[in-house]
Specification:
The complex is a heterodimer of chains A (about 280) and B (about 120). With about 280 residues, chain A is mainly alpha-helical. Chain A has one domain. Chain A contains eleven helices and two strands; from the N terminus they run ααααααββααααα. Chain A has a two-stranded antiparallel sheet. In chain A, helix 5 (about 95-120) packs antiparallel against helix 11 (about 250-275) and helix 8 (about 180-190) packs across helix 9 (about 195-220). In chain B, helix 1 (about 5-35) runs antiparallel to helix 3. Chain B has one domain. Chain B is built from four helices and no strands. The chains are: A mainly alpha (about 280), B mainly alpha (about 120).
Chain lengths: ~280, ~120
Amino acid sequence: MSSDVATIASTSALAGFVGSLIGLGGGAIVIPILTLLGIPLKQAIANSMITLIATSSGSASAYVRERLTNVKAAMYLEIFTVMGAIVGATITLLVPSKYLYFFFAAFLCSAFYGIRRKVLTSTTYDGKPQDKFSKWLELEGAYYDESLAEEVSYKIVRAHIGGPAMMIAGLAAGMLGIGAGAFKVAIHELILKMPPKASSATSNFIIGMTALAGSTVFIASGLVNVVLAGSIAVGATIGSLAGSRLLPKMSDKAIRGLFLVVLTYLIIQMVYKGVTSP
Amino acid sequence: MRKPALEEVIGYILVIGVITSLTMELAGLVLYVSGKRTMEIDLSDPEAYVRSRDFFAYVFDVASSTFGNPNYATVMALGLVFLMLTPYLRVVASVVYFAFSRNYKYVAITLIVLAMLTASLMAR
């Protein structure tokens, strides 16, 4: 295993490609692979976190102009994710790497469960009456759904619960250098009752801000190597752009089924590294 | 003249920021490989590490050294600075936009996010 520019950029491109296909984000895949290439875990987390700004902002720019992103909801929820990410990144600098491997494995297990559920079921939006706080925050939206060929309007509910819950997503993101998109989407859909497309687009938008919050802590830590970060950023962005272009042409079940195999392998690797590291 | 929607302003900030920073990262990688005559990433090379005091002071350090004596490390560091400033600028733009729209509720909400990010960027 070697850490050269071509290997890091190509594996990051592959991770970004697979990540955008299944909506998990590149960080969750690229970090375990970087550790397999000999990069220390904390360094992999710090450098991957900065590059998440590029992969998230690239796709977010399109979603936000198509009005799929709920900007007001994102601004409100970012209060909590930014706070969580700053605390999470600080914890990562203090905790021994051994424990971070186990945290990572636990996160991948939760993603495994989420993807498996998506293979078996699909989420549907059920309209709920809006509570006073969500109404005060003006949390509603509308977008044109091409697959349904109609305008979808919705009202967000339970913002008083969804906000603090997003702090946990921010904490996980900051600690592990990932987008924690699966957590964020779950909160958007299950608590806030956002429709799936608005939920994914808004989650993607928030990931860029959470990544910046975590990066503000890592940038002063002496862990950020410009060549490593640059190689990951270029590779992961190209990969995620390619993945998002191919996405409409591929079978959902086949992609997710294949990815469960990859995820199982990464979980085993993370647990193994946690057990064998000093 | 039509006032652009917040979504349009944010969309352009994101796309311009990402293209600028990735172009600089790519240019830096070319300078690195052509200058070092190797693809190997040397994790023990101190020149390749971001050494930050206050982030905003670091921005000026990196910008002045890139224009004074450009090399792979300063070009790539400037690329990372552009990358980090992209979401930061979209919060600044949101504060300004909501202020112009007289939506003071959202001016306050976006200012809280901006204050947390700024405080964290200024921490040593």
